[in-house]
Specification:
The complex is a heterotrimer of chains A (651), B (158) and C (122).
Chain A: H1 5-31, H2 36-55, H3 59-76, H4 84-101, H5 108-127, E1 137-144, H6 156-166, E2 168-174, E3 192-199, H7 203-209, E4 218-223, E5 230-231, H8 232-238, H9 246-257, H10 269-294, H11 299-322, E6 324-326, H12 328-345, E7 349-354, E8 359-361, H13 362-383, H14 387-392, E9 399-408, E10 411-418, H15 425-434, H16 446-451, H17 474-483, E11 487-493, E12 497-505, E13 510-518, E14 521-526, E15 530-535, H18 538-543, E16 549-552, E17 555-561, H19 562-565, E18 577-582, E19 587-592, E20 594-602, E21 616-621, E22 627-631, H20 633-650
Parallel strand pairs in A: 7-9, 14-22, 17-19
Antiparallel strand pairs in A: 1-3, 1-4, 2-3, 4-5, 6-8, 9-10, 10-12, 11-12, 13-14, 13-20, 15-18, 16-17, 18-19, 21-22
Chain B: E1 4-12, E2 15-20, E3 24-29, E4 34-35, E5 45-49, E6 52-57, H1 59-62, E7 75-83, E8 86-94, E9 96-104, E10 108-109, E11 123-129, E12 132-137, H2 139-142, H3 151-157
Parallel strand pairs in B: 6-8
Antiparallel strand pairs in B: 1-2, 1-9, 3-7, 4-5, 5-6, 7-8, 10-11, 11-12
Chain C: E1 4-8, H1 12-24, E2 28-32, H2 35-44, E3 49-53, H3 61-70, E4 79-83, H4 88-97, E5 101-104, H5 109-120
Parallel strand pairs in C: 1-2, 1-3, 3-4, 4-5
The chains are: A alpha+beta (651), B mainly beta (158), C alpha/beta (122).
Chain lengths: 651, 158, 122
């Protein structure tokens, strides 16, 4: 069993989700200590984690989790109160489980220490709860199976065995309905049973024994001492959900994770990537087919080719949807971060989130995690004031941090807002001057001043706490966001708070591009960067040899000859074109030999061996199977300008 | 471990080199190569391998050889190599692919420290086979990230 | 305590999930991709339990259960079908067709095992 790596991988994914659920449940529980549904949820998740962990060979994890499960079982039964301390210990234990899940042996001392603390907290918490000794009840159960039960695979012996697991049983079979031999149908069930059961389990567990046939059979469950024998079907409705019954409980969990009530199959992320690759290949093969079909007089071939084209387009769209995940999966991580930061900084913080259902490509989500962590840390560490400071400033003691996501066109906008002290312009200016980023008393607009924060090496905190000083600065955040072809905006009002907003394309997997030819190579320019295309008049090309500017309406736009930048060693086409692109801060013309046309592109990442090549953000496979590189506009322009500067210096 | 090593042998400018068979994923005919401007000469291009875009390396340049013209014998050997913890497909341009064979490692010799035109760290060992030496290149050292960041350093080696 | 189980589902990932969970617990698992194949495999072997999806191409699960119950050799063999919680009416139809029990999708390995053991009386 342990050799089955595929299953183990599946378990890891599942376990990570369970741990996530446990963490969320515990965090919720720390605010709503008495919430039974939360207690049940945490218990169930711990239980499942233990069970599957043992099944897949994670013995250390299983046995460690077992102790937490036991503790929560006591909470669930009302023997122990979920005190904040108890929740905190289990929260810490949950971190240890993560380590154990990671395959690391985990520090045994850490585990022991946690279990010791857990035991103490349970002891303290149970003092206040007043455990009720579970009394055994005597139940009398009368049941008759439907005549076709045996044919349909129901095994009465299995039912009886299951009841024995609930407690001591006395079973009496009533065979009075068995007909004489000549009238007997061998596979029909004529026997009824009377069972006396001594058990501390609730009625629902007895009913669960019959879960598959309860609607079709005669079942009476009578509690000793109570006079009336109630038909089970009617009591089942009255039993509150809090009673422990494993099967309905897990159904509850399923329906919660599946709001639409549909089926779901868990698939490792790499499988999706593989599928994406296959779909990409299919699209390429299909476009070859289209070319052949278009050149063929065979109408049937053309019809089939069109069908395949439609199907492969639909398949690609479906694939895109499959890759979308709600941004809530990302946001939920921050509750723990904020919880920990509040404890470490002594600040009182409330995190609110909005738009968790907003869906974004999974790769975007993964890559946004670190920048967002940094931004949230920044807000809390530098933005929010201490409770005393806030009181003095006339604000509520609890600081607000808000994470929100929403769709806007083809982009998702994520904002991080705080109601802290805002950015101190004076300090930003002083720091920038000290760093030599600006000359003293430089004339800057407010936005330009704030943008300085994104410069490499910039940090405004007077004392770098252990929270924010993690070696990443806002410049790294900005670069990461730009690498996702997104942009970052910052607004801040002194004394009122700051807001950072990230605009990111919904998917990294596909972009709309402009396919161009430079020399013999074909390249893709992201359409989002393209402003316009025009011809480069020969005389202007000649005239601008020295100064690479083209006049566009009233302004002069610098341009780069991609042929020279790429060192194609080819002669320029007679009618060269200029593609005017925007880098965000400026407009630049890119001179190409030919504009081939619009091209929707599946983006492939460049390999590790080409990580150092900054001019390209990725590659794509064209209809004829050849590879075209996708231009990274900001980096390409930067490279081009450096090259030109060097040439000028040399020349 | 074992004294025997299963390898794929191929020709590079008249020399016979060998790759551990276990890292070879596919042998392809020459295909359209896309030049990557700004990349090192060693991995100056990319190709389409089963819908993936993978780098194409000219081992010739690592060993200071000329890249000859493409012939009917030219093949691309696709290997999968662990680089910095990630498995990466790399296409290797070869002049000719010979055979899958077994090398007797008892006949191996370390790269001579002098008298060799090649950078010794690029050669894992030489194995004598039928009167001639088969070169086992040290691919990790050749493709070590950072060692080929610009075209310039390689040209200097060559 | 192990046994031989036939799993019928058109989704190979579900089949794999079931197979992994059950072979891990010591059961032998045979797979079939639709109802018709399920009947062929059921006739060709001897199974202690059949787990089937309902919605499948070629022959759906309900029909397969009905057909299997017509064959005396398969009378009494427990048949569990996979369903989603909302399908109360479907549950009734499946039971009328001769199913023994059901398992709600999506399910986790321990839940599947619990149900399998319950039905097999293990």
């Amino acid at each position: 069993m342990t050799g089955n790596t595929e299953a183990i991988e599946t378990f890891r994914v599942e376990a990570a989700e369970l741990l996530e659920r446990i963490e969320q449940g515990l965090l919720d529980l720390s605010r709503k200590p008495g919430d039974r549904a939360l207690v049940d949820e945490v218990f169930r998740s711990l239980h499942t984690l233990k069970g599957s962990g043992a099944m897949f060979g994670f013995d250390a994890l299983a046995s460690f989790t077992h102790h937490c499960e036991t503790a929560f079982d006591k909470v669930r039964k009302g023997e122990v109160v979920a005190t904040p301390n108890l929740v905190s210990v289990v929260l810490a234990a949950q971190d240890h489980m993560r380590t154990l899940l990671g395959g690391g042996a985990g520090d045994d001392a850490v585990g022991k220490d946690l279990l010791g603390r857990l035991e103490r907290e349970v002891a303290i918490a149970s003092g206040s709860a007043g455990p009720e000794p579970a009394d055994k009840t005597e139940w009398t159960i009368l049941f008759t199976l439907p005549p076709n039960a045996l044919v349909n695979g129901c095994n009465p012996l299995a039912l009886l065995a299951e009841m024995r697991e609930l407690g001591d049983c006395t079973v009496i079979a009533d065979v009075s309905d068995v007909p004489p031999l000549d009238a007997l149908v061998a596979n029909e069930c004529y026997v009824s049973w009377r069972v006396t059961l001594h058990s501390d389990r609730p009625r629902t567990e007895i009913e669960d024994v019959f879960m598959f046939i309860i609607d079709d059979m005669k079942l009476e469950i009578q509690q000793a001492g109570s006079k009336a024998i109630e038909p089970a079907a009617s009591t089942a409705v009255d039993v509150p959900a809090e009673v422990s019954s494993p099967v309905p409980a897990s159904r509850q969990a399923e329906s919660r994770s599946l709001p639409k009530g549909g089926e779901s199959v868990r698939v490792p992320a790499e499988r999706l990537d593989e599928l994406m690759d296959r779909v990409g290949e299919l699209v390429i093969a299909q476009s070859r087919l289209s070319q052949i079909a278009a050149a063929s007089p065979d109408l049937n071939l053309r019809a089939v080719s069109e069908d395949i084209e439609r199907l492969s387009n639909e398949l690609r769209n479906t694939m895109m949807v499959l890759r979308m995940v709600p941004v809530g999966t990302l946001f939920s991580r921050f509750r723990r971060l904020v919880h920990d930061l509040a404890r470490d900084t002594g600040k009182s913080i409330e995190l609110t989130t909005e738009g968790e259902a907003t869906e974004v490509d999974k790769t975007v989500i993964e890559r946004l995690a670190d920048p967002l962590v940094h931004l949230v840390r920044n807000s809390i560490d530098h933005g929010l004031e201490t409770p005393d400071q806030r009181k003095t400033a006339g604000k509520p003691e609890t600081g607000q941090v808000r994470l929100a996501a929403q769709h806007a066109g083809g982009e998702v906008v994520i904002t991080i807002t705080d109601d802290g002290r805002g950015i101190d312009r004076g300090r930003v200016r002083a720091k920038a001057e000290a760093q030599g980023l600006i000359v003293p008393n430089a004339q800057l607009s407010d936005q330009e001043l704030l943008q300085l924060i994104f410069q490499p090496g910039f940090s405004t905190a007077q004392t770098i706490t252990n929270l924010s000083g993690r070696g990443v600065g806002m410049d790294v955040v900005k670069r990461t966001v730009e690498a996702l072809r997104g942009s970052i905006d910052l607004t801040s009002k002194p004394g009122v708070g700051s807001e950072v907003s990230l605009r990111i394309p919904l998917t990294l997997a596909i972009i709309d591009g402009l396919l161009v030819r430079v020399g013999k190579g074909r390249y893709v320019i992201p359409l989002s960067a393209v402003e316009e295309c025009l011809e480069l008049p020969v005389e202007q090309d000649m005239r601008s040899r020295g100064r690479s500017f083209i006049s566009l309406r009233d302004s002069l736009v610098p341009f780069l000859r991609l042929r020279e930048l790429f060192q194609t060693g080819t002669e320029p086409d007679r009618y060269q074109k200029v593609v005017v692109v925007s880098t965000g801060s400026e407009r630049v013309g890119l001179v190409v030999d030919q504009i081939i046309g619009d091209h929707q592109t599946v983006i492939k990442a460049m390999s590790k061996l080409h990580e150092d090549v900054a001019m390209f953000s990725g590659a794509t496979i064209l209809g004829d199977g050849a590879v075209a590189l996708i231009l990274d506009i900001p980096h390409l322009v930067e490279t081009g300008q450096n090259q030109e500067a060097q040439l000028r210096k040399a020349g | 471990m074992s004294d025997e090593l299963e390898v794929l042998t191929f020709d590079l400018h008249g020399e016979t080199l060998a790759l551990e068979a276990s890292i070879v994923r596919e042998i392809m005919d020459m295909t359209a190569i896309t030049v990557v401007p700004g990349a090192s000469a060693l991995v100056g291009g990319v190709i389409n391998f089963r819908g993936k875009v993978i780098p194409l390396a000219n081992l010739h340049l690592a060993f200071g050889m000329e890249v000859g013209p493409t012939t009917i014998d030219s093949r691309i050997v696709v290997i999968e190599l662990e680089l910095d913890g990630t498995f990466t497909f790399i296409g290797l341009r070869t002049d000719k692919v010979n055979e899958v064979t077994t090398l007797d490692l008892t006949k191996k010799e370390p790269p001579p420290s002098i008298g060799m035109r090649w950078r010794p760290e690029y050669v894992k060992c030489l194995v004598k086979r039928g009167g001639e030496f088969v070169v086992l290149p040290d691919l990790h050292s050749i493709f070590a990230v950072g060692s080929h960041t610009t075209g310039g350093t390689l040209k200097a080696v060559a | 305590m192990a046994g031989s189980i036939l799993t019928v589902d058109d989704s190979s990932s579900i089949r794999v999930a079931i197979k992994v969970a059950l072979t891990g617990a010591g059961y032998t698992v045979t797979e079939a991709g639709d109802g018709a194949e399920g009947i062929r495999k059921a006739n060709a072997g001897k199974f202690d339990l059949i787990i089937t999806d309902l919605n499948m191409p070629v022959m759906d699960g309900l029909t397969m259960i009905e057909e299997l119950r017509k064959i005396p050799a398969h009378g009494g063999v427990p048949i569990i079908f996979l369903t989603t919680e909302s399908d109360a009416a479907l549950k009734q139809r499946a039971k009328a067709a001769g199913a023994t029990g059901w398992l709600t999708k999506p399910f986790q390995a321990d839940n599947l095992l619990k149900i399998v053991k319950k039905v097999l009386g293990q």
